[in-house]
Automatic annotation (TrEMBL):
Protein name: Hydrolase TatD
CDD domains, per the entry: TatD_DNAse
Organism whose genome encodes this protein: Propionigenium maris DSM 9537
One Pfam match: TatD_DNase
Binding annotation for a divalent metal cation 2: 128, 151
Length: 253
């Protein structure tokens, strides 16, 4: 059984020199990968990749550190893109209080606007949250009819439990790091039926390739580590997380 990468950035410039080779490895070794937008242009590129490759799907949205571009016109274009049949969700959207390129209040405003857009188009969301867990959870609770994935989940099990009915939790390469004690403890407690696997490539490369560019086929190292942490087989991790990803993105009921 082939794995799925639920969150990647294949349109990133770090793939410009060998993107075709990276895509060929995805086609050969994965079931599919989901390419995630972070602004209008990357969202358009994501849709283009999905249109030209059967094994790529797209997500469109504006990342909290890129909301300076946001306007009614940008929202209208994103909403049109979000209706494309190969666009699975709106994202990645949310809050980032680490970089703080815009004030918290502005981030929260644009976050809510994109949550409302997801509601209008009837698609899930992919959530980015950094140093903003409490505010993120509170806003997600304002939209009980919207579901999705909290990407690179950084919080505790207790925080996850607050939104577990509606959200899956993305686990990536950080779990393979020696200093990932907090994430390991969270993954130990999270039910397997709420976990999805992601690379966030080209970032957060798992061991044994840490420090090098990440790519989607490295999901296998994350799956192996989840199997170790949960005390189950690698095959079971693949089966369950693939099913979770398809449910999270509304591909199956």
């Amino acid at each position: 059984m082939k794995l799925i990468d639920s969150h990647c950035h294949l349109d990133n410039e770090r793939f410009d020199s060998d993107r075709d080779e990276v895509l060929a490895r995805i086609e050969e070794r994965l079931e599919f990968a989901v390419n995630i937008g972070y602004d209008l242009e990357s969202s358009k590129r994501s849709v283009e990749l999905a249109e030209s490759h059967d094994y790529i799907y797209a997500v469109v949205g504006v990342h909290p550190t890129d909301i300076g571009i946001y306007s009614d016109e940008v929202e209208a274009e994103l909403e049109a893109l979000a209706k494309h049949p190969k666009v699975l969700a709106v994202g990645e959207v949310g809050l980032d209080y680490h970089w703080m390129t815009d004030p918290k209040e502005k981030q929260q405003e644009i976050f809510r606007k994109q949550m409302e857009m997801a509601r209008r188009v009837g698609k899930p969301v992919v959530i980015h949250t950094r140093e903003a867990t409490r505010d993120t959870l509170d806003i997600l609770k304002e939209y009980p009819d919207v579901r999705g994935i909290v990407h690179c989940y950084p919080g505790s099990y207790e925080s996850a439990a607050e939104i577990m009915d509606n959200y899956y939790f993305g686990v990536g390469g950080v779990l393979t790091f020696k200093n990932s004690k907090k994430l390991k403890e969270t993954v130990e407690k999270l039910p397997m039926d709420r976990i999805v696997i992601e690379t966030d490539c080209p970032y957060l490369t798992p061991e044994p390739y840490r420090g090098k560019r990440n790519e989607p086929v490295y999901v296998e190292y994350i799956a192996q580590r989840i199997a170790e942490v949960k005390g189950i087989s690698y095959e079971e991790v693949v089966r369950i997380t693939n099913e979770n990803t398809k449910k999270a993105y509304g591909m199956v009921k």
